[in-house]
TrEMBL record:
Species this chain originates from: Hyphodiscus hymeniophilus
SUPFAM superfamilies: NAD(P)-binding Rossmann-fold domains (SSF51735)
Gene Ontology terms: cellular component: endoplasmic reticulum; lipid droplet
Record keyword Amino-acid biosynthesis present: no
CDD domains for this protein: 17beta-HSD-like_SDR_c
Listed name of the protein: Cyclochlorotine biosynthesis T
Amino acid sequence: MAQKTVLITGCSAGGIGDALAKAFHKNGLRVFATARNLAKVHELRAIGMDVFQLDVVDEVSVRQAVEKVKTATGGTLDFLVNNSGGGYNLPLLDTDVSEARKMFDLNVFSVIEVTKAFSPLLIASKGTIINIGSVAGKAPVPWQGYYNASKAAINLLSDQLRLELSPFGVTCICVVTGAIKTKFFENSPGIKLPADSIYAPGKDIIEPIAAGSSVQNMLMDVDFYAEGVVKNALKSNPTKNQWLGGGIWMIWSVATFGFSTVWDWIFPSVFNIIGVTKNIKAAQK
């Protein structure tokens, strides 16, 4: 049988894409590991993967990547993993809409544009799209509303792609990802509320939470996560909405069985909105 192929976006060292590339490689696939900065993927080239530059929000870069894969495989691709993404953590009323648009370009619109570009190769092999979604798209996690919305879009668009590509034999898996131990927060800029934020009295509570302090005790090892994603992807009948990662079962249970406003009862204590409220009321006196 011909060696199966996979292209993964966002494979910088220490992240989910890096771990996925290694896991697919370990399972015998030919891996096209891509990143915007090639200096961050040199280790993957050293262990035998095809490595090249891909900026998912650059149309020319995407088109060049398609041509490279087409030349290497003769016009097919078995798996496309849309992993590239970024965060934007601030209370919604403190956000800059231009920054939010950039994040949506990266987290949402690029996923569809990259999938469109590679669709002829996926259709030729009756392949599989794997979108890295998030539990943040299933619940209104405080202080990161635009990020949550971008991941909610990916969760829904994955279902949309699966339905619309079914006539061509192409399927789509959405990995609803929980807390994973990567360099995501380490590589993110520090979270600072604007000086004129209406939440200023609660900044000492909000800033650490927005920077990831609330999930540090539930992080899943990234290699364990990657192995789970790859194991599912390689099944003859994979789970199409795969929940995987630290802290997922609470979100899954509430999202599945709870009423629509149940988060109003749960998250004030989980994310210390109660403490923020006390600080704001004290400052107003």
